[in-house]
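Just wondering, does anyone understand these tokens?
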Amino acid sequence: MPQIARVTVFTGSSPGADPSYIALARAVGTTLAEAGKGIVYGGGDVGLMGAVATAGREAGGEVIGVIPSALVNKEVAHTDLTRLEVVEDMHERKQRMAALCDAFVMLPGGVGTLEEFFEAWTWQQLGFHRKPIALLDVNGFWQPLLEMIDRLVHEGFISRDFRSSLIVAEEPQHLLRALHDWQPPAPKWGEPSGSDVEL
């Protein structure tokens, strides 16, 4: 059972077309903060990512943003966080977000959100970390992605163990319970490396 002090949240820099996305983002920020879980995220004050951070701060939680310097210069950084870490580029951002957290959660988002999720999940499969990864579904948003992942399992490209270890939750309280009950799968290539992500 993992000890979870902080959760990295991957989500969109846009609000999305459905108001339920913003509502979910705010609920996640509030729920994590009220449960005493720190939030690590991409550092922006826009879209769903900004909603998660603002709700977490309003609930008295620790919120750490990690943002590339180029985006700070575009004035999209959140100005009311526990800490904002400015890094050189996107690669360093993802490494730092992974190092700071004990679990990863993906909310609705676009290409960047998908890229972050798949990289973290790949690292888990390769044994570079042993941290739970979850998709927080709302109105079936992630069902097409899960169908594609199931196709990859069926075609022999992802093991059933890794598919089973992927948490899918529909609301924040279920997410918290699932994160704490999670057991890591065996890495794809033998024993885990014993260190966090260093890619």
Summary: The chain is about 45% helix and 15% strand. The helical segments are 19-34, 47-58, 69-73, 90-100, 111-125, 143-154, 160-165, 172-181. The first helix runs from residue 19 to 34. Residues 79 and 138 are 28 Å apart (CA to CA).
